[in-house]
Amino acid sequence: MPTAPSPEIIAHRGTPREHPENSLPGFAHALTHGADGVELDVHVTSDGVPVVHHDPTLHGGPHAGRPIAALDAADVLATALAPGVPVPTLAEVLALVAPRATVYVEVKAVDAEAAVAAVLAGHGSRAPVHSFDHRISRRVRALAPDTPVGVLSTSYLMDNVAAVRAAGARDLWQHWSMIDAALVRDAHAAGIRVVAWTVNDVDVARRLAGYGVDGLCTDLPGVLRAAFPRAGS
Question: What pTM value is reported for the model?
C-alpha cells in the first residue's frame, strides 16, 4: 500500500494550550513536539523593532490597551505574557527556532514590511512571510526577493491561483474548512503550496493530507506529529 502523505506540521503560535501563545517557551515546546515549523504574528514598535504578538494592543502591565505601534521596544518587551515570560522580539524567535525549524511570519501591521524584511535578511526560506493583507506579502517580496511569501484566506475564491500570483506568493494559507481536493490540485498545478489552518482534529487533518496539502498549522503539534510521524521515526 502507498504511504499516507506527510504534510509539514506547523505549530500555531507555539503551543498555546500549554504555554502563552507567541512566547519563547511555547515555541521551544513546539520543537520538542517535533514541529517542522512555527507560525507567529508580528507587529512593529514605534522605534522600528518587530515584536511577536497577535493583537495590535498589549493586554497586561502598565501599557495594557495601548497600541504596540505607539510604544517603544523597551516598554513592549517589559510586558509579561505570564510571570517571567516577556513579549519576544522576532529576532529572538529566529535565534531560537530557525536553526531547527521554519519560522512562518504573519505580518499584521501595515508599513511593517521594511522592518520585518531587515530582520529576516539572510534567513531565506527558513523564514517565509504571509499576511491577510496581500499587499504586505507583495511588498515584502519586492524588498526581500529571497524570502518566500504567502497569502492568507478565509474564502474560496473563484480563482485562488490568480490571487496568489498577484501577490508574487508561493504559499496559500487557507482556512481548513475552505479546502477541497480541487483547490489543492489547482494550486499544485500552478506550483503553489497549500497550508491549512488551524487544524486541531486528527480526522480532519488526515482528510486534508489525503488531498495533498503541504502543511497543517495546528495548536496541537504533538498530536498531529503522532498522526504523521517523520519517515524513519
Answer: 0.96
